[in-house]
Design a protein that fits this description.
220 residues; alpha/beta; six-stranded parallel β-sheet; 6 strands; globular
């Protein structure tokens, strides 16, 4: 039985992953950083600490991580200021359903606490979540399972009683490593065969996630 659902944020609940990707690409162009697509693929789902480490390990001779992130953040903030934080279809309906069913709800995101709280305030969704675990609350970011395991522990449920919902490859790897029912709702990039093999289910939308939970809990 699914007793709790643990969600990623960007690209899963909020349609912000494509804004981040566009901001990365714009920063790459502005700073003449050629391996931008490699960096996007490798760093999507990672927290700031692990992203910095990846840049320092792979691109230290090409670019300053702090300079790159300053430009990327400028582009991202301008877009959010103009248009707000867009929601994925079915977010409110799914969160409302989980609350009505008494199923625990957690957010497990690589995003920093300040940004996460800003997004929840802008969207008015903060009251749905029983637990928040952000990128600066853990030692090891995704694909390490710590973010999801911490969320389960704070919810007071076993990992095997949780469903994790993600859009990124690193997030899927983290859920599977945590021993949770692993669901992907693909966003900007479809799953590879490696990622497909890690999934218990793949849903096109969050509406399908609700139907999946209903079916699992009915059967069990």
């Amino acid at each position: 039985m699914i007793k709790a659902v643990i969600f990623d944020m960007d690209g899963t609940l909020f349609d912000t992953e494509r804004i981040y990707v566009n901001a990365w690409r714009q920063a790459g162009r502005e700073l003449n950083f050629a391996p931008i697509e490699e960096a996007i693929t490798a760093c999507t789902g990672r927290n700031a600490k692990d992203t910095r480490q990846y840049f320092e390990d792979n691109f230290a001779d090409l670019i300053s991580y702090d300079e790159f992130m300053a430009v990327r953040t400028r582009y991202y903030d301008a877009e959010i200021e103009r248009h707000g934080v867009p929601l994925k279809p079915g977010v409110v309906e799914l969160l409302t359903y989980l609350k009505e069913q008494g199923i625990g709800i957690a957010l497990a995101t690589a995003t920093r606490t300040v940004r996460t709280e800003e997004n929840l305030q802008r969207t008015g969704l903060g009251h749905y979540f029983d637990v928040l675990v952000t990128g600066d609350m853990v030692e090891h970011g995704k694909p390490h399972p710590e973010t999801f395991l911490t969320a389960a522990a704070r919810l007071g449920v076993k990992p095997c009683e949780c469903m994790g919902v993600e859009d990124s490859f690193n997030g899927v790897r983290a859920i599977r490593a945590a021993g949770m029912f692993t669901v992907m709702v693909p966003d900007t990039v479809p799953p590879t065969p490696e990622i497909e093999a890690l999934l218990d289910a793949k849903c096109k939308t969050l509406h399908e996630v609700r139907a999946l939970i209903e079916n699992i809990n009915y059967i069990q």
